[in-house]
Amino acid sequence: MDYKRVGMQIGLAVFVAAASWTVGPNVAEAAPVKPIVSTASFKANLEKSFLVADDTDDLSTRITTDRLNVRSGPSTGHNILGVLDTGTTVKGELQGDWFRITYNGQTAYLHADWLRSAQTPARSESAPAPAAETVTRYTTANLNVRAGQGTHTNILGVLPNGTKIEGAAVGEWFRISYSGQTAYVHTDYLRAAETVTQETERVSTEETLVTTAYLNVRTGPSTQYGILGVLNPGTKVEGSSEDGWFKLSYAGRTAYVSKTYLTAFTQQTESTPAAAEENRTSVTRYATAAVNVRTGPGTGYAILGVLQPGNEITGYTGDGWFETSFEGQTAYVSQSYLNASAPAAAPSAPAAVSNVNTSAAMEAIVADAWAQVGKNYVYGAAGPNTFDCSGLTYYLYNKHAGIQLPRSSASQASAGTSVSRSEIQPGDLIFFINPGASRVGHVAIYVGDGQYVHASTPSTGVKVDRISGSYFQNNAVSIKRILP
Predict the structure, then answer these.
(1) Is residue 370 in a domain?
(2) Domain assignment of residue 95, given as a range
(3) Same structural domain for residues 365 and 458?
(4) H helix or E strand, kind and range, residue 397
């Protein structure tokens, strides 16, 4: 039963009855008494006083006692819609541990622990509360910067270990300004400025260094972190050293590169990336297992082909990856599957062959070359169903003449006898230097009538082209006759 409303109705009935009473004789002879308030006005005021008491628990006023998250639902798992400053007055309804309000036209919630009743004087009304003290702290690890006080809130960025910050403690969190907005970091990963060691202070010492190879730029100081980009050889970088890594700014954020591939910057090292690349030393490596050839220095890059065990490649060492040339473009192979020593001695010229019918062998080689047209290109393959460029010529001469050519186009170029373009005959090998390269990177076999067959690219496979075409005219550098 609603006792307050029943009491109001009883009081109202008493008032109405009293208003209808007849005054006694002595009073009746006197001048009429004018009522202080009308019946209707008293009734309205009386009802209003009871209703206010009755509705206080359903619709009330509260004041925030600290900066407080406004959430879409009554739990810390709901989205944050905004933040109310300390001392903000709100009206709403208490629901358990949460206070329901209207925020920007929608229902929202505040945690009741951070609200006080409007009737409760704030501490500042009796004695001013001290403002939160701004102090200096240093991070003790790479630390997430969050939009609110909780690990469920959005991550705005990461502060590297040893970063100096200023702000104020708010419970277990430390409030700071980050990229122009209020943000929070957890106090478990901070230490007071007084306890910072000289080693931490040295973190901020700036250095200028130069890359000595193509170098991955990572999100953190370990190869386990993601790759943001790649620096070219000869790139000047500025930053600070941290346990074998170099911290720098990259694309507007903190990043890291391995210090193994950096050298001190001097006037002698200041040069363009192109000049630094020319000064690099090219080396030869051999695959120790089947290994992918990729478009970039990381397993997240696309696969261009596969090296087979024993395949020879030439290029440059780098940050865990070996840079080489593949079909006229820069490619990369993991250095974990490469060795500086060849698995077995590979002949640099065709082995001596006796009792070979040169004419018959050449006809078989040319005929079989035509038969391979249309088959797939696979880097490192040497038949019978897939080929790369040197794998095709190796397959044809080994099968029909018993000659084992070296297994790279650059090495095959040293075999046989050189002939001029005007002397070219079916079976001769044509060697090319691809645009932008400095050494032989492709080989084809001439099949007569102004045409040659070659394993071209993964997209075209084994195909036929003419020596009158631009690729031959612009890129062919030598022609070799293998059979006398």
Answers:
(1) yes
(2) 60-121
(3) yes
(4) helix 389-401
d(CA 437, CA 280): 14
pLDDT in tens, the chain (484 residues): 444 444 444 444 444 444 444 343 333 333 333 444 444 444 444 433 333 333 334 568 888 877 788 888 888 778 888 888 888 888 998 888 888 999 988 999 888 877 887 765 544 433 444 455 788 888 877 788 888 887 777 888 888 878 889 988 887 788 999 888 888 888 888 887 544 444 444 444 678 888 877 788 888 888 777 778 788 777 888 888 887 888 888 877 888 888 888 887 665 444 444 444 445 677 888 888 777 888 888 777 777 777 777 788 888 887 778 888 876 678 888 888 888 887 654 444 444 444 556 788 899 999 999 999 999 998 888 889 999 999 999 999 999 888 888 888 888 988 889 999 999 999 999 999 877 777 888 999 999 999 999 999 888 999 999 999 998 998 899 999 998 7
> 456 with 363, same domain?
yes
Instruction: Respond yes or no: is residue 389 known to be catalytic.
Output: yes
Same domain, 287 and 309: yes
Are 261 and 298 contained in the same domain? no
Q: Which residues pair with 185 in a beta bridge?
A: 174
Alpha carbon distance 323, 391 (integer Å): 21
| 400 labelled catalytic | no
111, 152, 186, 389: the catalytic one is 389
Contact between 390 and 408 (Cβ < 8 Å): yes
Same domain, 234 and 218: yes
Q: Which of 172, 168, 135 is nearest to 150 (CA)?
A: 172
In a domain, 5, yes or no: no
Q: Report in angstroms the alpha-carbon separations of 35 from 8, 19, 32.
A: 21, 9, 9
